Amino acid sequence: MSSNKSTLPSSSSCSRRNASLWTLSISAVLLTAIWGMASFGFEEHHIDTNHRVSATQPRNNTISFSASHFPPSYWPKFKGQRYVTLLDGTWGTANVSSHDLATFDSMNPNFDPSTIKFSADMPVPSCVDSSPPGYMIPRGVYFFRRLFHFDLASAGARLQFQGCSFYCRVWVNGQEVGDHRAGGYVAFTLDIPPQASVDNEIFVLTDDRFNKTTAPMHTGGDFFHYGGIMRSVELHALPPPREGTSGSSLSLWPWRVYATPNSLETVNVTLHLTDRTYTGPIDTEIRVSFDMGPGVAYAPKLFSAVDGVASLGNMKVPNPRVWSTLDPQLHTLSVEMEGAVLVERFGLRMFDIDEDSLRIRLNGEIIKLLGWGHHTQWPDTGGSPTDEQLDEDILLLKAAGANFVRGAHYPQDARWLDRLDENGMVMWCETLGPNISAADTVDPYFLKYQAQQMNEMLDNAINHASIAIWAYFNEGPSGENASCPAYQMNTDLIKSRDTSRLVSYASSEAPPKDVCFPVVDIVSINGYPEWYDKPSAKTYWSAFASYYKALGKTFLISESGVGAIYEWQDNETAVPWTCAYQAKALVDIVEESISDFNVSGLALWHFFDFKSTDFVITGNWENNTHCDYLDNVYPPTCGYIDVNISTPFQKPGGQNCKGVIDFWRRKKPSYGEVAKRFTAITAKTTQHR
Description:
Blueprint (H helix, E strand, L loop, with lengths): L5 E2 L11 H8 L11 E2 L2 E2 L2 E2 L5 E2 L7 E3 L12 E4 L3 E3 L2 E8 L1 H4 L18 E5 L16 E9 L7 E5 L5 E6 L2 E6 L7 E5 L6 E9 L25 E5 L16 E8 L4 E8 L6 E2 L4 E5 L5 E3 L5 E2 L3 E8 L14 E7 L2 E7 L4 E3 L6 E3 L2 E2 L2 E6 L12 H13 L4 E4 L6 H9 L3 E5 L13 H18 L5 E5 L12 H14 L4 E6 L14 E5 L10 H14 L3 E6 L19 H17 L5 E4 L5 E2 L3 H4 L9 E2 L8 E4 L13 E2 L12 H14 L7
Parallel strand pairs: 6-11, 30-31, 30-37, 31-32, 32-33, 33-34, 34-35, 35-36
Antiparallel strand pairs: 1-40, 2-3, 3-9, 4-5, 7-26, 8-17, 9-10, 9-11, 11-16, 12-15, 12-17, 13-14, 13-16, 18-19, 19-24, 20-23, 21-22, 21-25, 25-26, 27-28, 28-29, 38-41, 39-40
């Protein structure tokens, strides 16, 4: 093996079954070969759930809302008159041809959905660009269509997209109902006005091109931004007119109810109505119950709402059970109004900072947070994982002794947050927008959509017990004084809605360059000793921790790691990019993080190898940078990969290779080394070391 280029042995852990699956998955890149099969300037193709090109199939993409509805599996839950159904399944699809893409304006007010012809299908949710690492499908504009039968259409409805990327524009029955520019990874809603017909069509345009106007939150970063309708689409019935009225007075229904703990026995309850404009006394009974118990009925007009929001005050939880990392107990809170029932899930736990040690506490006890950053990425499904894939990652994290997950670098899938709640994982949740510029932080247009994204993230995640830290602006311009007001704006917005959590941002500015840190509760630093930076992990991180301790700030390592190629496990020397080098360096980082009392936590970067960014952001074209795969081996295994051991600034095979498992979730030697050290701390009832 030469010092600069690596020919890799076949791993004994790789079976030779299912090779055809990988061959077909690779064929996803052949979408570029059918570019140009246009109909009125639009090309059409079929992609199945494994994102393989195949022939167009007959479809029946009509869903009946009333006859059989399919409620979401994730929280919250809905009962009674609160009819909710998923519009997931097979949708018609088409896309703009490469010939017309450069001049196509996704925001054109004169665009007519009826001009699009559909002859192909695609599953929703899924990603339009789930190509393997080192391959890139050209970014573009896609169209989706679905029919649905809705007996309650005369009362109107609300669409909730859990994720539509990057830019999303929606029509119902040919009438535009709105668009979304605040990032493709956050849930949002659009209201449908009352319809005369029970048979309806939804039409969605998605645009996954980087653009400051249509997608201001997609600012780049070292990861692939997926496009399409990536997460579930929900259809919610809205309240009908009250009996005996002419239609101007609607029933008052609960949209969401938030339970934020202010002790280990009580929660502050905030009710959000489906009518977001309602201001005045709530003139209907509100029945509230915990854990499906008998509940309490509150008389009409006892509470008032302003712009659809009402505080129900502090409530004691009967038979309270505390959520912790070792015993993640959860409660439910139900609200019923005029026959509409909403059931939310929450946990009783308290996160704060110990005044003496400046360490993070959970339920009054100092805790050492140990875990990884975690992207929503899989080789075959991209940013639209199956339930089984989410379950596998949770099991791998638990087996590795993790009690902490940094959700990178965007709002998280509701199904993933549910699993973190249930498994006692402490969560860092942040908005999309890594590597924003100083110009972004003073741009009113950018800040408008950042505030919208932050509110939408809070709207959809605030009840999750696992979330301890809200964050924003990964590796942003926190070394610029002019940018600090934008940082303050985000912190103020969070604190105005939720005082039960801590606030941070991940900084790449070494002290004393970072000047915005006073606005957050926790100083979090991304740094790479023994990889990009030369000092030892102990020298590097102990200096940071001591510096911020002297300034009276809590300190957390939000990223630190080392790259390794999974197949490079048997090299004679532990040179950079080998698994042996990674294992040694990660042990150094972990042991320093555990032994240094001034370090509150560590999120290693990254849990698994993942697909890197494309040329639009970095200037480096990642297409055809994949390794040479061994024939007839599955999971895919590299026989040769182009890597220079003298520099860490590269993406071998189009991947960020800093994972302790590879993209296909095969363990590297570092996984076991880290797991031993994490488990020695996180398995203890007292984790204050």
